[in-house]
Write a structure and sequence with these properties.
The chain has 2 helices and 56 strands. The strands form 14 sheets. Strands 1, 2, 3, 4, 5, 6, 7 and 8 form an 8-stranded mixed β-sheet that branches. Strands 10, 12, 13, 15, 16, 17 and 18 form a 7-stranded mixed β-sheet that branches. A hairpin with a 5-residue loop joins strand 42 and strand 43 (about 565-570).
């Protein structure tokens, strides 16, 4: 009972206005400092039922009231089993007393108790108070109800002919079984009790167009027999008219039930249906004989078909074809090789990889349109349905730098069920757009790829429809061109050498382990005490050279990509304190070349490049606190952006791996603890260096120059695993710098 006031609060417009006022009042309470509340006296002084405790159906119901101030409206909300009933008294001028009255409707106040849910008063000044069942008063602080709980004013309705039960159709009898245009179709409907509206909705032979018979009235309560009727016109087609649904409204429209041909009921109120036997709707069917309008069978000019991809686990839909009208489609049933597919009875079908592969699929459906007889239509077979294809372990490997070489690697494709050999097609994309000509398994990134998202995809195909496409992204930004891509734009590793006269020479490799003719590319270089190539330092796609002079100034010599120069300019000063400068390429994985140095205190630093010829903020790579730290090393070389080789004073070559984030693995704070030995006996080399890939196998090399001038190339050592070594030149001892 306590929930009743809440139910009726939303039934009255004044109460909804009151709720809006509550929201405003609550906001004001939150925004205004608290002050002592002034209690308001109740407005409704007395409220009494003046009608009998038992009221006969159709008799008056009344309540007398007095108020402390003039009011213009008093509203009483009542509740019966059928729903809400509202009685109201109004006075434009206002008064302090009156009687709220109404009539207990015999057709909507069912036999039983009538509860007083709440009483609302509105003063002539617009002030509203609500007195709820249970004794509470709104607004809060108004005080207790002076007349007590409205529940004490409950009463009973004596209406035995209107029990709280649904009006159920118990019989349906057409007056005439077959009708012609101009006649009146009539169906007698027996109901278990009173109703105010009965409608019978039929469908003609098209099963789409409807025809309605209706009855309305307000008879006395009790079991009821009515005749629903409607005129048959020339527009009605010949054929059977099947009763699709019966709609009955009762309790003066407070309840409505729709009885469907399949036996189900749709309801607007939870009124008990009772145990009365319902009439079966086919009993109300009739026929129309109209030779002037005979329906023809619906046929298509373009037959329906299945549309969708020949792809595993795909959703197939229906292209419904072309018809002479706007049809509807229903009763779908999908088939696999002639056998109905369980639960596949919608207008789409999700293919099943357990049983569909290799089989044909089609769908059957019923098509209906106004003015035509329904027809059954089937699509042509679709398939055979594809097998599941998978391509796993997809990854991009190789040198992810401008001018580098990337591969799309994957395991052999598999099909389920097994059988056949896959063919593959590849595509590389830049920011989602296919790169012209990049349709091989490998790809060489260009300067146009810098700063872009590079993806690679593979499509594996076994047979029609048995196809899979997988795509993978290149992880991390594409790095600027490394020095191993060559100074003369042929993509092979080169070696620079300075002779005693200050001439700078380029010794280009031929890409297969030998040399092309040497080229003098500069003179006057004997003023520099440190020379090295950082790769593409300024981001123009060409390999550059850096040089430090005796004053500690650092210069950038921009390469033109063809074995010559664009210009040179100073990029730093104060570099004279650096014992070693190493150019690893992109050490911190931001896409630009970096430098690693060892200073006079044997602290290792990273000087990140900004990709435009300058530097970002340097940071300490490793201090080397223990066991002598970095002071025990006398040479450094980096064949790869993730590897630094350091030769110690005992001639051992030790390797330090970069983590890809600009530091060594485990940060290498103690060089002896975090290194791996890559070789020994390196004390016999006057110089060591790394030219890039010298023999064309995509693996960088490391070289050493003996004291007698021999140059020995260590193939594959740039990736740790030494494959072989060979002497590839003599007379290198006379150079004052080799890099």
């Amino acid at each position: 009972m306590g929930s009743t006031p809440v139910r009726f609060l939303f039934a009255s417009t004044p109460v909804r206005t009151l709720l809006a006022g509550m929201v405003i009042a609550l906001v004001a309470m939150l925004l205004t400092p608290a002050v002592p509340a002034q209690a308001a006296a109740p407005i409704l002084s007395s409220f009494a039922r003046t009608s009998s405790a038992t009221v006969d159906a159709g008799a008056p119901v009344s309540f007398a009231f007095t108020t402390s101030v003039a009011v213009k409206r008093v509203e009483v909300s009542l509740h019966s089993a059928a729903g809400t009933h509202t009685l109201a008294w109004t006075s434009a001028a206002g008064d302090t007393k009156g009687t709220v009255s109404g009539v207990a409707s015999a057709s909507s106040w069912p036999n039983g108790i009538i509860e007083v849910s709440f009483v609302q008063v509105i003063t002539t000044a617009g002030v509203s108070q609500v007195y709820y069942r249970g004794g509470s008063v709104y607004p809060p602080g108004t005080g207790a109800s002076p007349f007590g709980d409205p529940a004490t004013r409950d009463f009973k309705i004596n209406n035995p002919l209107l029990p709280y039960a649904a009006s159920v159709p118990t019989a349906l009898t057409p007056v005439k079984a077959t009708l012609a245009p101009g006649q009146n179709a009539q169906v007698q409907v027996k109901l278990s009790q009173v109703a105010q509206d009965v409608r019978l909705i039929y469908r003609d032979a098209s099963e789409v167009t409807t025809f309605e018979l209706a009855w309305t009235g307000n008879p006395a309560p009790g079991p009821l027999t009515v005749v629903a009727s409607g005129a048959v016109t020339a527009a009605q087609a010949s054929g059977s008219y099947k009763l699709d649904r019966v709609v009955i409204s009762y309790f003066d429209g407070r309840a409505k039930d729709t009885y469907l041909r399949d036996g189900t009921v749709e309801r607007t109120a939870p009124v008990p249906l009772g145990s009365v036997a319902r009439a079966a709707l086919p009993a109300g069917d009739f026929a129309v004989n109209n030779p002037a309008k005979v329906l023809q069978k619906l046929t298509s000019s373009v037959a329906p078909s299945i549309q969708g991809e020949l792809f595993y686990n795909t959703t197939l839909s229906i292209n419904r074809g072309t018809w002479p009208s706007e049809p509807t489609f229903s009763d779908f049933q999908w088939y696999r090789n002639g056998t109905p597919i369980d639960y596949a009875q919608g207008d789409t079908y999700q293919s099943n990889m357990t049983t569909d592969p290799g089989n044909l699929v089609w769908v059957k459906m019923t098509v209906r349109a106004p003015g035509y007889l329904p027809t059954s239509a089937s699509t042509a077979a679709f398939g055979p349905m594809p097998r599941r294809v998978s391509v796993i372990n997809l990854r991009i490997t190789g040198d992810a730098s401008v001018g580098g070489h990337l591969w799309l690697n994957h395991d052999p494709a598999r099909a389920d069920p097994e059988g056949g050999q896959a063919s593959y097609t590849y595509v590389w994309k830049r920011n989602g757009t296919p790169i012209p000509g990049a349709t091989s398994r490998d790809y060489r990134p260009s300067l146009a790829d810098k700063g872009k998202i590079i993806t690679a995809g593979v499509t594996a195909r076994f047979d029609a429809g048995s196809v899979a496409t997988e795509v993978v992204d290149l992880i991390g930004p594409l790095a600027d061109k490394t020095r191993g891509k060559g100074f003369n734009a042929d993509g092979t590793g080169d070696i620079f050498a300075r002779d005693g006269a200050g001439n700078l020479w380029l010794y280009p490799s031929n890409g297969s382990g030998g040399w092309l003719p040497a080229q003098r590319i500069g003179q006057g270089w004997n003023t520099f005490n440190s020379l090295f190539s950082p790769g593409d330092w300024d981001g123009d796609g060409n390999v550059d050279v850096m040089a430090r002079d005796g004053s500690g100034r650092l210069f950038l010599y921009q390469g033109n990509g063809q074995g010559g120069w664009i210009r040179s300019y100073q990029v730093g000063q104060g570099w004279g304190s650096m014992k070693d400068i190493v150019a690893p390429g992109d050490f911190n994985n931001d896409g630009t070349a970096d430098l690693i140095t060892r200073d006079a205190s044997n602290i290792m630093w990273v000087y990140p490049g900004n990709g435009r010829g300058g530097f970002l903020t340097p940071y300490v790579l490793s201090r080397g606190y223990q066991e002598g730290g970095w002071q025990e090393f006398n040479a450094f070389v980096s064949p790869d952006s993730r590897i630094i080789f350091a030769r110690d004073n005992s001639g051992n070559l030790r390797m330090y791996s970069g983590s890809g984030n600009g530091y060594f693995h485990d940060n290498a704070w103690t060089p002896n603890a975090f290194s791996a030995y890559a070789g020994y006996g390196w004390e016999g080399f006057s110089r060591i260096g790394a030219p890039g890939d010298f023999d064309g196998d995509e693996v960088p090399e490391v070289y050493g120059i003996h004291s007698d001038g021999r140059l020995t190339m260590f193939y594959g050592l740039g990736r740790v695993a030494l494959k072989r070594q060979a002497t590839i030149g003599w007379g290198w001892g006379g150079f004052t710098s080799v890099f």
